[in-house]
Amino acid sequence: TKPPKYLSFGKRFLNIIHIIHTKLRHGGILKSDLHRCNIVEDPMCSCGHLEDAYHLFFVCKKYSLARQSLMSNLLSLNYLYIIDVHLLLWGDESLTVDQNIKIFIAVQNFIHECGRFK
Questions:
Q1: If we measure between CA atoms, which residue out of 6, 9, 12 comes closest to residue 87?
Q2: CA-to-CA distance for 70 and 108, rounded, in angstroms?
Q3: Tell me: the pLDDT tens digits for 47-106?
Q4: C-alpha closest to that of 102 among 74, 69, 79
Q5: Phi and psi angles of residue 24, each rounded to the nearest 5 degrees, phi first
Q6: What is each CA distance from 13 to 5, 18, 24, in whole angstroms?
Q7: Are 51 and 43 in contact (CB under 8 A)?
Q8: 19, 110 in Cβ contact below 8 A?
Q9: In a 3-state reduction of DSSP, which class is residue 44?
Q10: Contact indicator for 100, 4 with CB cutoff of 8 Å
């Protein structure tokens, strides 16, 4: 099946933030993913907790300001009832392409603002 259009909006291969978003979606960029593949020994974030997508988006204190901005942007969309990792990484097929693009823009802004992948 063909993937939804919102998974590849914009200048896909020229936008490093888009690439990071895609890698988060498929694993292989956070320490828990790298540990599972025996690439790093320690799956823990520098804050002491397991570094996975849930931790990145919802828990880590290092990204509190970026998270506040992300949640504010998402809540302003007025059509989201559940904000979870799946929504942030994969979107929601029950929403329109434009709505999903707005979610992805908010997530990509978070990725940029948190500075984790510099």
A1: 6
A2: 9
A3: 999 999 999 999 999 999 999 999 999 999 988 889 999 999 999 999 999 999 999 999
A4: 74
A5: -65, -40
A6: 15, 8, 15
A7: yes
A8: no
A9: strand
A10: yes
